[in-house]
Design goal:
about 300 residues, alpha/beta, six-stranded parallel beta sheet, 11 strands
């Protein structure tokens, strides 16, 4: 029985981060500018705390100017918007990220849209979404997870996906929809599926490329997959796992990894696949924002 290639997102992310670190040092030496990333976290969500810590550590290791604003869970929306406005006009900050999810009393759309598009390194502003959908991404920011997924797909299949079929499972604004735009721009024939799709396994079985981003542990099985498919698993699900006779909480994706490895040509693991790439692409977007601000790109 053949085994697919394990796509090592951790190693790829490390290689990209190394290049970002070198470019950052050059930017500082030649222009006296450090890319500045400001992360705003509101409340005490444990998963968010971990993500923010990882982002801060990565930013610092790349040589960035890294700022964190930690706000209480009951912070008024007006105060959050006032902080964003300060960061919008701060020339030392090139990327602003508000960690999601937000406490229930805050309007996520009002807050994400308050970030100026030129500092929206998450790619959530409607201006950046519009540019991505229209194919004008020279001065736009692509959401970090889909951007990372595309780089891993390119490693397996090249930049031109002409003649390839792709199926995305999940239609979120953060992954599914931008993934559709990126795959389409790379000339793939793309289908977006979701909870209302009929005969989902049959639809997925037609795909040369499968991107699973639905939040259901181990949903995609080997018998869903076309032999030789490239499978990108965006899911991060916390589940109980038995390891050495002990029951512990562990992470699993939306794809049954061991099962998929028997049919696919390449699969991303969870953890160690898409996750590390997401944080590194955030750094890539922040560096690009600093370069755009200096007139070096665009």
């Amino acid at each position: 029985m053949s085994t697919a290639n394990r796509i090592d997102g951790k190693a790829k992310a490390a290689a990209i981060a190394e290049a970002i670190t070198e470019e950052t040092a050059t930017l500082l030496a030649e222009h006296g500018v450090k890319p500045g990333l400001a992360v705003v976290i509101i409340g005490e969500d444990p998963a968010s705390q971990v993500y923010v810590r990882n982002k801060k550590r990565t930013a610092e290791s790349c040589g960035f100017h890294s700022v964190q604003h930690t706000l209480a869970a009951d912070t008024a929306e007006a105060d959050v918007l006032a902080l964003i406005e300060q960061l919008n006009v701060d020339p030392s900050i090139h990327g602003i990220l508000v960690q999601l999810p937000l406490p229930g009393h805050l309007d996520e759309q009002a807050i994400t849209q308050a970030i100026v598009p030129s500092k929206d390194v998450d790619g959530f502003h409607f201006v950046n979404i519009g540019k991505l959908n229209a194919g004008h991404i020279a001065d736009a920011f692509v959401p970090c997870t889909p951007a990372g997924c595309m780089l891993m797909i390119e490693d397996e299949l090249g930049k031109d996906l002409s003649g390839k079929t792709a199926v995305i499972i999940g239609r979120s604004n953060i992954v599914g929809k931008p993934m559709f735009s990126l795959l389409l721009q790379a000339n793939a024939t793309v289908t977006v599926t979701h909870s209302r799709t009929r005969d989902l396994p049959d639809v997925v079985a037609s795909a040369d490329i499968v991107v699973a981003a639905v939040g259901r542990p181990d949903m995609v099985k080997a018998d869903w997959l076309k032999p030789g498919a490239v499978v990108i698993d965006v899911g991060i699900n916390r589940v109980e796992k038995t390891i050495d006779g002990e029951t512990k909480m562990g992470l699993t994706g939306d794809v049954d990894y061991d099962d998929a490895m028997t049919v696919a040509s390449a699969v991303t693991p969870v953890p160690g696949g898409v996750g590390p790439m997401t944080i590194t692409m955030l750094m890539a977007n922040t560096l690009r924002s600093a370069r755009l601000a200096l007139g070096l790109e665009g």
